[in-house]
């Protein structure tokens, strides 16, 4: 199971990112565990300056804006 953290304060882009991640995982048959990280102190530990940020299995893969579906498919296709 992949651990996926979505870093952000709960804005619309953060919610859309979570929805996209879950949809791609479902379509690809990939088992993910999504965790929301909303505290700025916790977000800053990852070096993320613009949200939403995405961390997969401890590695920052994205920051700022909703990623494209193609990018998400690449991350979850490992």
Give a quick rundown of the structure.
The chain is of the alpha+beta class and 78 residues long. It has helices at 12-28, 40-44, 69-76, and strands at 2-7, 32-37, 53-56, 59-63. The protein has a 4-stranded mixed sheet with strand order 2-1-3-4.
Q: How would you explain this protein's 3D organization?
A:
There is one protein chain. This protein has 78 residues and is an alpha+beta fold. The chain has a single domain (2-76), classed as Glutaredoxin. It contains 3 helices and 4 strands. The chain has a 4-stranded mixed beta sheet with strand order 2-1-3-4.
| Alpha-carbon Rg, integer | 11 Å
- CATH class equals Alpha Beta
Structural class: alpha+beta
Q: Write out the strand line-up for the largest beta sheet, numbering strands in chain order.
A: 2-1-3-4
Work out the count of structural domains.
1
| Number of distinct beta strands | 4
What does the largest sheet look like? Answer: 4 strands, mixed
Average pLDDT taken over every residue: 96
Helix tally equals 3
Q: What portion of residues is helical?
A: 25-40%
Per the CATH scheme, the topology name is Glutaredoxin
Sheet-strand content, in percent, reads 25-35%
CATH architecture annotation: 3-Layer(aba) Sandwich
CATH level 4 superfamily: Glutaredoxin
How would the blueprint of this fold be written?
Blueprint: E1 2-7, H1 12-28, E2 32-37, H2 40-44, E3 53-56, E4 59-63, H3 69-76
Parallel strand pairs: 1-2
Antiparallel strand pairs: 1-3, 3-4
Helix pairs in contact: 1-3
């Amino acid at each position: 199971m992949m651990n996926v953290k979505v870093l952000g304060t709960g804005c619309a882009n953060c919610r859309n990112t979570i929805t996209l991640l879950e949809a791609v995982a479902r379509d690809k048959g990939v088992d993910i565990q999504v965790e929301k990280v909303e505290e700025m102190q916790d977000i800053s530990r990852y070096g993320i300056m613009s949200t939403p940020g995405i961390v997969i299995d401890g590695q920052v893969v994205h920051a700022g804006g909703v990623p494209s579906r193609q990018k998400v498919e690449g991350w979850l296709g490992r």
